[in-house]
Sequence to fold (613 residues):
Amino acid sequence: MGTFKVNYRQDTALFQTLWVKVWLGILVVLLIVSPIFLSRYQISILNEMGIAVIGALGLNLLTGFTGQISLCHGSFLAIGAYTSALLTSKLGIPFWLSFPLSGLMAAALGMIVAVPSLRLKGLYLALGTLAFGFIVEYVIFHWGLTKGDMGMAVRRISIYKFAFRTEKQHFYLITGFAAIAVISAKNIARSKIGRSFVAIRDRDIAAEAMGIPLAKYKVMAFAVSSFYAGVAGCLMAHYQKWIVPGNFDLSVSIAYIAMIIMGGLGTILGSVLGAILITGIPHGIVYLVDIFKESYPGLSGFIVDFKLGLFGLVIVLALLFEPKGLFGIYWRAKIYFKTWPFKY
Amino acid sequence: MAVLKDAPDYQLEVEDVSISFGGIRALNNVSLSVRRGEIYSIIGPNGAGKTTLFNCIGGLYRAQKGSIKFEGKEILGKKPPEIARLGIARAFQNIALFEGMTVLDNLMSARIYHSNYGLLRAAVYLGKCMSEEVRNRDKVEEIIDFLDIQAIRKTLVGSLPYGLQKRVELGRALAMDPKLMLIDEPVSGMNLEETEDMARYLLDINEEMKVTVVLVEHDMGLVMDLSDTVTVLNFGLKIAEGSPKDIAANPEVIRAYLGETDTREEEMV
Fold:
């Protein structure tokens, strides 16, 4: 049976069919009860994933939707993380205030990075953002306040005298923020702003002739993207309680690019799936090694050396066999079940 | 053909516009005036400067000399989005649709000046943002009905055949609610049937929606049947302007299209 809509409001609804709502409900219930069954280590993986989801959404809005390549997403995480760390420890500002401020700080710096994007495209822009990434890294290393390589202790999150101590408490907080991030990113993507982003990606000259001011929307894309990165960095800092510049180096930026490419460029669901996959792969490798530890004792030492290589191999293979990422797989599966038993 | 008022009411006035690229004079003191509500065609051999003129009017190129006035306001030097906001829409010659979007989203993206909400409202989507989206959707659906593309509204435009893409391109320009449309070769590469459909759309846009249409086209049949006024460009120079009938009989136009007859050769024969 088909779904019938009688007005445009229904056609713009996020969750259109009963089945979507049912599956979503199941997912929400699972997320709420999962900490009860999972170990501390497993919850910590979920927390890591939740933070990565927020960051990946931001990068996908910039790179996947607007088509602006950024190699400094990790730096915006750093800006968010250090902003919140400094505000809470030096000025005693509470978390509920430092959280949005860290996002705004990253957004403000993101708007500065956007300026070269008005002139540069493609690889040249990538180089420009790379340079910004090195500047941020340099500042963090050499600025007295951030204590360089020594790292900085960060206060734990507390909201109105309620302090977040356990993995479980952090899980609910981070997952809650991740859910808000997903919904707001989806809303932005389906509004005139998201359409303008995609228009700029697909045909910037035509977009301009249609009345879309390129400069405004490119700057906005950078600002939104780095806001997401900033708040993700803030959550990461307070969750880890200890940050060093190494948490935010170039490899982090590249991991985020891997997330959105593996998940699916220009899709919200893709950002979520990609973030889960890329954060999950290292833990998956560790898990597999644990299983085969008894029968192949030499394996663990071998794997430690090749962990990064394996990670790269998985990405290369995935791109080779599924260039549209996880979203492409999801889409094909959906079409398959929708049209079953017909082939097309 | 549109019914025109006796007193000329010029909507678009191009005066002495010149632009060169390196050593090439793409436009050389071109002047033309488009009356409100007419179908105005610009013809000429390849490389005559027709599309360059469109780019100057739309603000994509900046003419080095002259003036371009739209409804009495100088638009030369303004940026493309500002010109679009004044009510000049553009349909491109080589289809320039947003390939990663559906037909519906392509048309919706042209309604940016008709939706009035900011980033924060978009992130929440409820309330004003939703009602604006629905209102714009209403308008876009009218255009979808008009162009008879209901069946493909949710198809990605990249996967559509050429003729339909041309139609969507026209629809996107129309979705801006323009006062004047610059349409670049709407029927190039189309068969007879598609050309006739397109001619019908152009006439309806002009007569029913009261939009001034400026055409660049090579299909002489279409130009001569539809236009109120025709201008001929050749190597960046305007060589003739007038009603279709005058143009068809103009010796200079015939020379530009068919080449010059060599008088000495005639004598030898």
About this structure: The mean pLDDT of chain A is 88. DSSP finds 14 helices and four strands in chain A. Chain A touches chain B through 33 residues (CB under 8 Å).
